[in-house]
Protein 1
Amino acid sequence: MLKWIVRIGLALCAIALVGMVSTYVFIDRELNRMYGAFVKVAEPDLPPPGPDAYALVDVNVLSPEGDAFLPGQAVVVDAGLIRSVMPADSVPAGLETVDGQERYLIPGLTDSHIHLWQSENDLLVYVANGVTQVRDMNTVPVNLRWRAEIEDGRIGPDIFAVAPQFATFGPMEGAFVGWTQRKTIVRTDDQVHDAVKDFAAKGYDALKASSFLDKAGYEAMSEATRAQGIKLVGHLPVAVGLHDLWASNQSEVAHVEEFVKALDREFGGYGPDEAEAFLEYVRERSDEVADRMIEHGISVTSTMELIDSLQRQKLDLHTELDAAELAYENPGIAEGTVITSRGMGWMPEVNIYRWPDQWDDDRKARSRIYWQAYAEAQHILFDTFLEAGVPIMAGTDANVPVRVPGFSLHEEFVALQEAGMSPAQILASATSVPSDYMGTNAGRIEAGREADLVLLRDNPLEDIAATQGIDMVVLDGRRLDRAALDGLLESVKAANDASRKVSLEQF
């Protein structure tokens, strides 16, 4: 009898184990699907690269200061570098020339806040939009492989790799969050120091604090990044205040929005009834915050259009989706999965910003007041930062609803112009400012810089929307004309369509 009981017990354990393993495999597969691992890879038919050495002639070149175009210029490119900038009639004889047709040449653009995740089609969409460098704010191992392949000549933007963000959770929750959200879970100083050292050794460019890192972890991360000589960037954790930021090694804050959150905590938390009082508090504090940022050399990344869009997504998501270039968005992220209805989704059934279905009109109206104040507080801080001269980098949080890679940077430019930035300041925020911060050899058109360039039909210093009229992208010296760029987009659309489970015809 005992033998039968033991056998039954073992059989039940085996069944339970098989069930657990099957559940894990299913969830893991759905997570990979959500991040885009199963999206068909685009295969554009591109012409072979041209000669290494050539001159792009008869162009208006953005000055190194970024405030004027120099007419009648030639840019000599050789082996992926700008060798010289000279009058068009001074180009050496025998060098191949490309007619720029009196168009406007700017440095390649940088989106300083994006999320690549696992669909490599995004790489092509960035390039097609003139984005030749990105700062990936949660770089997973496959993205490091892409970075190496791009350095070896693959078509894609240069990747400034920020390691998976640090967060503090208990053992069980931490294991789940680390697995599903691709975060670095730390609970002790030793774990922080070991993780920082490991990421630095693997070649990451910076480390990111998340909103959910505890105060001890934040302080340890500051100490460890300082010791390793690696940048600390990202959020301002909920557990810390602005005084902790000023005392830290953090040199960049990933959203203007982070300061809204910090001041909300100082204020004691606002709701619809306290919205006006909170906005007045933000006005009172904004000058000091800006002064301290400059004092401590802290930059900020914009993501203005994302925050402005939150209330629009709640009020009229269909219109927001209709306006987005959904054909080029990672289908896995846009569609979500059966296990992550509010994980990362964009579509109406899974959109992470939508109002819960059970909310009545009164609750929605009060929520709208809250989010209007939230966006206005962001603009108050942005205006103060801009006037004070805080370094601002243009970033979009691409792949967060409804920010389509590449396209979202041009939308951010329009939002920044509407917020009071001049076109010259906007161009700097996506060229020279991030180049200086990240220590890259790009961001300006001058001898010795990387030949990452964008040729525009119209003058973006007159209207920043001109950045959307791209005739050519030069990527590490390789020329991609308008036909080639259209080919990139067409191949991505075809690959995404082949992977799509939800029709876009409704938008």
Note: The mean pLDDT is 94.
Protein 2
Amino acid sequence: MKVVVVGCTHAGIAAVTQIFKAHPDTEVTIYERNDNVSFLSCGISLYLNGDVKRLEDMFYASPEDLEKQGATVRTQHDVLSVDTKAHQLTAQNMVTKEVFTDTYDKLIMTTGSYVVVPPLMGIDDSRVLLCKSYEQAKQLYKAAKVHKHIAIVGGGYVGVKLAEAYADTKHEVTLMQSHDQVLNNYVGPLISGKITELLKTHGVHVLLNEKVQAFHGNDQTDNILIETSKGEHKADLAIVSTGFMANTGLLQGQVDMDRHGAILVNEYEQTSNADVYAAGDACISHFNPAGNDAYIPLATNAVRQGALAGMNIFGEVQKDMGTQATSAMELFGYTLATSGLTLNAAKKEGLDATSVIYEGNYRPSYMPTTDLLTIELVYNRKNRQVLGAQLFSKHEVSQSANAISICIQNKNTIDDLAFVDMLFQPHYDEPFNYLNLVAQLAIEQERQTNQVK
């Protein structure tokens, strides 16, 4: 069987690796526009603040690695069109400009996503940069060496991590967010407020409810003027990080997509065309806590979906279990870890949801040291199922988000979480683990509510 993989970052690498693991005789051809594969864009901030010394270390595989497995790797090749009825594609060698056609039996689309570029005046100014690819990361690093004041447009995951990176390197940083809180897709107002204060403590100017409307200036001026819904701000450099869109133009009109252009796939990563599969940022994921399909561009989803696509092109081998969109970030020595729905998101989904807050030490106060921990647990009041949680502490709480993810995956209730077996050792937690304790608070909240009724 001949398999063509278009795009080769997380999902593409996972698909190819899985194919050769179980079916080493498969003919696999990879098309990739860049001269590299497997770039970890989530690690750009680590390079910008100096934690990672060489940007090249953010690659975990090379074209040569894939060729050793048996793949034909065509980097710097742009796929111009795909004809799913003819099982054929047209590509161009970006170096020689040669245009040619190729055929396939099965096609795996792992074309990823691109940074949303808002249609603003001045967005094409040379001092307005984006943050995703290897080349963009090099631009950011070079530009920061000669620019002191950096404005970041967008207070999501990428924007907040960039703000930290530049604050750590003694830049003046302004973070502009059109919403009333940072990380609005990840956390509720309480924890978002704590993160905002943490950013401010480290010198970041956080501007909320301030939507960027235009960039003014030219290459001869010393700075760029950023016009917002509330006024004007000067900076030496602006970085736009306002989200991502699925890169799926090649299959437009040929497979089913959602209204945003993300490819719809079934639980085997198969599109509406039986011979076309998709994985990663190019397609939707099944979002378990909401019970629907959603666009969730995370590396974890890409790797899992890519591996499953590599299995399932040979038959319905393994179903995709869906995702809880579990993620974490380290920020100025604190850990933020999340899984599932925020309270606001749960209510938007029409769920009868509420939340409870736990604030306390992660381990007994008689220990030589301890750290405060904040947890917001979101649950469904009708069936008491856990819908999501956010944890924030100097203590490393990322694995607790994984535990919450399993709870959501398995449709566990607050009653299950309150008394599930968890270890106790004074070095690590209280006799009841903090996840037990926040669930017990939820049970008590429901008991009191029902008493009032």
Note: The chain has a mean pLDDT of 96.
Protein 3
Amino acid sequence: MTESTTDILIVGGGPAGMMTGITAAQFSPHKKVLVIRPETDAVIPCGIPYIFGTLGGTDEDMAGRAPLLAAGGQLRMGTVQKIDRVAHSVTLADGDVIHWERLVLATGAENFIPPIPGTHLEGVFSIHKDYDYLDRLFSTLIPQIKKLAIIGGGFIGVEFADEIRKRGIEVHIVEMLPHLMQAAFDLDACAAVEKQLQAHDVHIHTGARVEALLPDASGKRVGQVQISGQEALTVDAVLIAIGTRPQVVLARDMGLTLSRSGGVWVDAFQRSREDPDIFAVGDCAHKQDFFTRKANHAMIASQAAAEGRIAGMNLYGLRQLRYNAGSVSVYASEIDGLAFGVAGLTQHQAEQEGFPILIGEARLPDHHPASMPNTTEIYCRIIFAADSLQILGGQILGGATTGELVNTIGLAIQMHASAPDLASMQFGSQPRLTPSLHPLVAATGDALRRHYEPPLHPCITGAPHA
């Protein structure tokens, strides 16, 4: 057993942990920063589905350690078994002890496996952010599959379905809600995603509840998926992709407060409630919605990295201008040329929360003129609060520009932009790179037209000008 000391100890080396380490090293260059994680090789979480199709192997999805090392941080392989809050120390599985001034928990999440019979059978798997596990899937299980069922029609299920079908495997998505992606998008976007998948022979079963996974003739391997009210679906393997839960064993053992949604309770600077020297970031930390402050389950790498930056800046003194104002939830993905993204609230979510809303829509080509090569239509849908005209959310269906358009919407939400702000936004335009009119400006103009149309707007009275 050896003992050592560091100033900042970060437990977990995913996007949240690594970004915390990079930021802490930049903002506190006189402090020693150590990230400890169990994996020698870490994968990029968002790239995992693409291992099985586009990338063609686990080695093509590696997360680099160079940015952390270049910033002055250090990385160590190991597993933390115990944390002593009073002594400011952690004990590793090999018996080594590390003492710290500031501790950051970035322990991530674990897959949720539903309590249905048969999940223990061979051939039933979920996606873990582990190089060796994913490499075994790619090299041993996937090549044997001819027919795969995916339980869950969210981002992971949809992306994995599109990638795995590229290997000539028959894919079935089983989703309990009436549409795929329904928790994240309004129905028009859901329908577009479903149509694109079906065009590539992905079979979609919506409004379908899985009752059990049944064994094949061997009694050991999965052979069928029993869907309520339907004939059993014969399969070779099953992917369970219905969500994750915060990994908080270390936090619970330390006596840190956990929220009812399961994450470590943190304040706006990612500090734990019990100890200002202990922070939590990423999937293991509780999140609150930007608008309502209700629990938000945005367990995505971009949100985790943002929390890492906040924690890294505030470890040794609060920087009031850099705090967590709430989760906006910015998502984007793509299926064979159809990109789809969302930021903030959907129409359904806004109406459920009780916001009176105003909607603006626009369809336009992403290049100008539209005869330019590789032109794709963009559909932009923006949700505003009807009273203040503040932007609440937006969705994009389009091509290569979708990701940045959604990020722009996310930034507008965080800046509390209003419809007049966006309508007067200055933007650059280039025929090969952009539309002639920015989609956000076009959709905002549509919303304002609706807003100022009688009888909606009280200032519009009398007859129109001759």
Note: Residues 439-452 form the longest helix (14 residues).
Protein 4
Amino acid sequence: MKLTIWGAAKQVTGSVFLLELEDDFRILIDCGMEMGKGQTNDALYPGSAFPFDASMINLVILTHAHLDHSGRIPNLFREGFEGKIICTGPTMELAELLLLDSANINRRKIKHFQKKRSRNPGYKPDFNPDEIYLEKDVNKSLEQFLTLPFNKRTKVKKDLLLTLIPTGHLLGAANVLLEVFENGKSKKIMFSGDVGRSNYPLLPDPQKPDQVDYLVCETTYGNRLHQSKVETEEELRNAIQKTCVDMAGKLIIPAFSIGRTQAIIYTLNKLFSKGNMPAVKIYADSPLARKSNKVYEQNTTYLNEEARDFKDEKGALFYLDNLEYIDDLKESIMISKSNESCIIISSSGMLEGGRIQNHIKENLGNARCTILMVGFSAEGTFGHRLVNSGANVVMGKRTVPVMAKVEHTDAFSGHGDQKDLLQFVEAQSPEELKKIILVHGEPDSMEDFKELLEEKDYQNIHIPEKGESFEL
């Protein structure tokens, strides 16, 4: 069989891995969009969103719902894919929300382009037309989803078995284990998806994986450890005390609507339920987050024991007296401009879109504001620029002074750090593991993690270029 790395090669986003079996059965593991890198069209197939013929793909296996793993699935169907998409139940439900939201953003992009072109016929779009899809394309793809539970060894066809192994990170997220039978021999290959971390809010710890022959492993935090030395609850308590209580200021938390926002609101719920903190007003400014909450609440069997017990005791995971969900855009803008001491949680986490941009724009000059970045921001995103901005940051075509305090914590990062990744790999015997392929990380992170693995006696470790193939 042959594996080709068509995404997440020497970068964190855009996972697309093509596995071709000897009988010409072709499997995509993930089909994600690149974030913060501009256009992703490789131009090998002009007019296509992919560097391969989508109609030749037989099956897609989805590790989890985040758009850098799922975001180009509708494009596959637009270009002739007719197969199934296999994932867990929660992954399908969350992917539906994210893909429909992405389609809505695409619709706004098209309207903006048409408006500009009506005034200037030579105006070119600031997006790749080949990668645009709308709600109808999403709905078509959703009809082809097929869900499996964790740890069910499933025959895909006579010479192919699939098992989805829980890995934390996000509700329903899985490592993908494939057992391929060729020429009377069994070969096992595992794709890590995104490896979660232990003791994360809401989610169970990652499950120790089985022994395999080939391992495709993410390296987002391959060269660093999580720096936060306190628990998530204590991290939020400190931030609220310093900004909202001591300064009567505004705490803005950019967070992805799916996953990170639920972890933060659940942690706030635990914190304020103890009754030893002032009831600071909390605004959850993301309609998508409210929809995501329902998916979490309806899939409690996928949560950890603490979260299930909390829900049994309190009745809800994501609702508390001092929390208000904001749906109306005008109300969102009013909150951005107000001087009220409050906590605002809004998407997106990398500051590349959504209502968070207005909250940031209105409060960069507010010395009583803290912008708390709680996750990874890919290079090229506004979130990355802001974290590394210093006194000024470029917004659009303007250079804006930064008076607000910009802080970063990895206490809420859903990604396992170097220690977690090493633990994931060390479940494999160096003598039995034939090849390791490192993906989904920045080049320095990959190189450092490769060196660490070599020190642990692992051999045949590869850092692929985009489009590079391996015979397995």
Note: The radius of gyration is 22 Å.
